[in-house]
């Protein structure tokens, strides 16, 4: 048996599911943001363990060489890895 949703019902479902999602996350592609991520990572206990340490070093190197977006991506991966490490 196939059920079809009427347009108002479909809109209601979409509105409810969209309301459950968190709002957009604002980020920036600046060298200052690289520093902010590095500072955040430095305060984490697992920051000195692998893979966080090497990802952070690579991210800072990239940011310092003008590859800010790629550096930020590496730093974010380092933060995630540090959060997952017990």
Largest sheet: none
Overall pLDDT metric: 80
Shape: globular
Oligomeric state of shown chains: single chain
Number of helices: 4
Could you give a short description of this structure?
The chain has helices at 7-20, 31-42, 52-64, 68-84. The protein is mostly helical and 86 residues long.
Question: Your description of this structure?
Answer:
α2 packs antiparallel against α3 (52-64), α2 (31-42) runs parallel beside α4 and α3 packs antiparallel against α4 (68-84). With 86 residues, the chain is mainly α. The chain starts with 6 loop residues before the first helix and ends with a helix. It has a domain at 42-86. 65% of the residues lie in helices and 0% in strands. It has helices at residues 7-20, 31-42, 52-64, 68-84. The chain is globular and about 30 Å long. The protein has four helices and no strands.
Question: Which key terms come to mind for this protein?
Answer:
single chain; 86 residues; mainly alpha; 4 helices; 65% helix; globular
Element layout with pairings:
Elements: H1 7-20, H2 31-42, H3 52-64, H4 68-84
Helix pairs in contact: 2-3, 2-4, 3-4
